[in-house]
Amino acid sequence: MAQTLTLTRQPKPGSHLILNDISWTMYEKLLEVFAEHPTRRITYYKGTLELITPLPEHETYGWTLGRLVTTLSEELGLEIRGLKSTTWRSLPKATGKEADECFYIQNEALVRDKLTIDLSVDPPPDLAIEIDVTHSSLDKMAVYRELKVPEVWRWQKGKLIVNILTDTGYVESQISMAFGSFPIKELARFMQLDPHKGENARLREFRAWVRSQIS
Prior knowledge:
- There is one protein chain.
- The protein has helices at 24-36, 56-75, 108-111, 140-147, 199-214, and strands at residues 16-19, 41-45, 48-52, 81-82, 87-90, 95-98, 101-104, 127-132, 151-156, 159-166, 169-173.
- The protein is α+β, with helices and mostly antiparallel strands.
- The protein has a single domain (56-214), classed as tt1808, chain A (Alpha-Beta Complex), CATH 3.90.1570.
- The protein has a six-stranded mixed β-sheet.
- It is globular and about 55 Å long.
- The model has no long low-confidence stretch (mean pLDDT 90).
């Protein structure tokens, strides 16, 4: 029997919906639907589908950390390819995920001129960012493990957690594969909102700090 799904209510920020026994075909149809109305983030893991409506807090931290990564790459002289919340999916693994932010760094040259990236032939992004401010019913790290994303940063309760993929799963690390020995955990202090400093002012302060670290 063909699966049908109708979503008529305007989702509230922070809301999430879990759907079980969803086929891959239905998942792909939902991606098409929400591509026109990107109000929710979709995660698919072996038949279970989760739709989350991001909070302003979630979007603020994702945008800010993405800007910090971009600025850091500029100051370190690294080329970078940002794909924001691109959907990464693997039919053989029955898995799909929209990152909050994602980047090619080590493998940037391999996808530099590609508008369509296929994980069956192309590498996954080198770095994915997850902002954890709402409860998820799915194990996001299990999803990233299936997609073979080598590095995932999680912003959680005011802390930046760096996870590196190993043969046995993700392990927390003090350093980043993408940025080597640079003290990446220090980015956390530039994530905090400040009533006396605007976003661009904080970014300028971050850029000056990075230069002081590499001079």
